[in-house]
Amino acid sequence: MVSFSRLTTSSAASLLCLVWLLTISSPASASFTCTSAATCDAIIDYTLPNSTTFNALKKLFQVKNLRSLLGVNNLPMTTPADQKLPANQTIKIPFPCLCRNGTGIANKRPTYTVIPDDFLSHIVTDIFAGLFTVQELQTVNNISNPNLIQPGDKLWIPLPCSCDDVGGEKVVHYGRLVATGNTIEGIAQRYNVSQDTLLRLNRLASPKELLAGSVLDIPLKACQSTVSNTSLDYPLLVPNDTYVFTAANCVTCKCDSANNWTLQCQPSQIKSSLWKTCPSMQCQGLDNFYIGNVTSSDCNSTACTYAGYSNQTIFTTSTQLTCPAADNNSSGMRPGTESWNIILVAIHLVFLSALYLR
Ligand SMILES: *[C@@H]1O[C@H](CO)[C@@H](O)[C@H](O)[C@H]1NC(C)=O
Ligand SMILES: *[C@@H]1O[C@H](CO)[C@@H](O)[C@H](O)[C@H]1NC(C)=O
Ligand SMILES: *[C@@H]1O[C@H](CO)[C@@H](O)[C@H](O)[C@H]1NC(C)=O
Ligand SMILES: *[C@@H]1O[C@H](CO)[C@@H](O)[C@H](O)[C@H]1NC(C)=O
Ligand SMILES: *[C@@H]1O[C@H](CO)[C@@H](O)[C@H](O)[C@H]1NC(C)=O
Ligand SMILES: *[C@@H]1O[C@H](CO)[C@@H](O)[C@H](O)[C@H]1NC(C)=O
Ligand SMILES: *[C@@H]1O[C@H](CO)[C@@H](O)[C@H](O)[C@H]1NC(C)=O
Ligand SMILES: *[C@@H]1O[C@H](CO)[C@@H](O)[C@H](O)[C@H]1NC(C)=O
Ligand SMILES: *[C@@H]1O[C@H](CO)[C@@H](O)[C@H](O)[C@H]1NC(C)=O
Ligand SMILES: *[C@@H]1O[C@H](CO)[C@@H](O)[C@H](O)[C@H]1NC(C)=O
Ligand SMILES: *[C@@H]1O[C@H](CO)[C@@H](O)[C@H](O)[C@H]1NC(C)=O
Ligand SMILES: *[C@@H]1O[C@H](CO)[C@@H](O)[C@H](O)[C@H]1NC(C)=O
């Protein structure tokens, strides 16, 4: 009798322990595969451990400017930097990615400066919400004895990322936090990638292996742009549902599926980071025809599109827009003259850019 009761107690305890482990297990952090020898821009989800502000986030992740933080979250430019963000809200963080040894990690930014009484698991769990493991933090910073971190030490924060093409296409890799109830099927549908691709990228054997709290590598489709390969921002990869500032802040571009995945750019009206005033953004030889403008006419219009920049000039391209034959009878949407036009027609490049005329 005695041994029987002891047995049940101990198996009950181990069962409880198992249940506890299953519920409390911290985010399973897995590094992302990255085989291209490259650097690129990446995005990761961060669930706020405490209430905070965009300014504090910008500082913690060393995001270059508030605009890029707002841009990846597709929030209005007018959002105040000190707006209160509640704990548990998930914010997308943009950061530079470096691929080495088959995996991608943040390219030496962000770094974290150790303060008194810090310890590694606190930094990983309470500050960076478990986006990487203590082991990864130790390895990348060559910390053999975790008790020997000193206030003032600068730690390289190994956020997971990748720069690899997916399905032959350039994409932006997004480390998406898996929420309770998420399924591979649902996520695949939302980002229009095949389930096989998602499983392969994340080295999951089956959809059942998806864990809430883990960070999933999602290849975000980026808009097609006409940026020249000689441009300083080549290849301008703007992913779905985001906007960026480029050409030293002179141009702003956004991407969404509503425009047939064509990048929509226009002059930005903000101060340039390079020039006193922005160079001309006019398409060659055409009066009052600037980046983002489209001539209005049925099924035969021309768009002035952004084609990149150098430290001296901003390139433009005139793009001929024609209606696809199948759309002959459709009347609803036709290009207007305002900026951010909805262009639902095929695009043929006309090599008129200032760049090529030199
Ligand atoms: C945040 O989420 C955790 C667990 O999901 C919960 O325990 C906590 O109360 C939440 N905090 C706030 C401020 O909502
Ligand atoms: C890459 O891996 C090799 C062997 O696995 C190792 O010697 C080298 O230090 C690693 N490089 C980096 C930058 O981690
Ligand atoms: C959140 O608050 C906890 C408790 O005060 C603190 O330990 C932790 O460092 C804070 N995290 C961040 C990112 O400020
Ligand atoms: C890591 O640190 C150890 C001891 O401080 C040192 O011998 C070793 O060269 C370091 N390795 C790297 C790759 O920096
Ligand atoms: C693009 O983003 C929108 C808004 O977040 C989302 O509804 C849509 O599913 C996304 N599409 C793809 C292909 O990523
Ligand atoms: C999803 O991708 C397929 C093939 O890549 C494409 O044909 C389809 O139009 C896309 N669907 C959406 C809603 O973007
Ligand atoms: C840039 O594009 C041109 C044609 O568009 C091509 O001939 C050239 O090889 C490309 N250069 C690079 C460095 O990719
Ligand atoms: C489109 O309009 C331009 C002038 O605006 C004209 O030269 C060209 O022939 C037209 N193209 C078609 C296909 O109608
Ligand atoms: C532009 O960049 C080139 C090298 O890339 C440099 O030689 C030149 O001085 C720069 N010009 C200006 C105006 O900054
Ligand atoms: C398109 O419509 C016009 C008149 O609306 C007609 O003349 C033309 O033949 C149509 N073209 C096609 C390819 O259906
Ligand atoms: C052309 O673009 C400029 C700059 O975005 C804008 O101010 C202007 O209103 C546009 N012109 C037309 C005719 O759409
Ligand atoms: C969308 O863009 C693709 C390639 O850029 C083009 O082949 C296709 O015809 C476009 N579709 C429509 C409806 O304009």
Fold and architecture overview:
This protein folds into 2 domains: 194 residues, Membrane-bound Lytic Murein Transglycosylase D, Chain A (Roll); 80 residues, no CATH class. The protein contains 8 helices and 17 strands. The chain is 20% helix and 25% strand. The N terminus and C terminus are likely disordered. Strand 15 and strand 16 form a beta hairpin. The chain is α+β, with helices and mostly antiparallel strands. The strands form 5 sheets. Strands 1, 2, 5, 6, 9, 10 and 11 form a 7-stranded mixed sheet that branches. The chain binds 2-acetamido-2-deoxy-beta-D-glucopyranose (12 copies). GO terms for molecular function: chitin binding. Keywords: Membrane, Signal, Transmembrane, Transmembrane helix. Pfam families: LysM. This is LysM domain-containing protein. InterPro entries: LysM, LysM_dom_sf.
First-last Cα distance: 95 Å
CATH architecture label of the largest domain: Roll
Pattern of helices and strands = HEEEHHEEEEHHEEEHHEEEEEEEH
Helix share, percent: 10-25%
Regions with little confidence, pLDDT below 50 for 5+ residues? 1-28, 326-358
Small molecules in complex: 2-acetamido-2-deoxy-beta-D-glucopyranose
Shape by Cα distribution:
globular
| Largest sheet descriptor | 7 strands, mixed
Main structural class? alpha+beta
Radius of gyration, in Å, reads 24 Å
Mean pLDDT: 83
CATH-defined superfamily of the largest domain: LysM domain
Query: What is the fold-level CATH name, i.e. the topology of the largest domain?
Result: Membrane-bound Lytic Murein Transglycosylase D, Chain A
Number of strands: 17
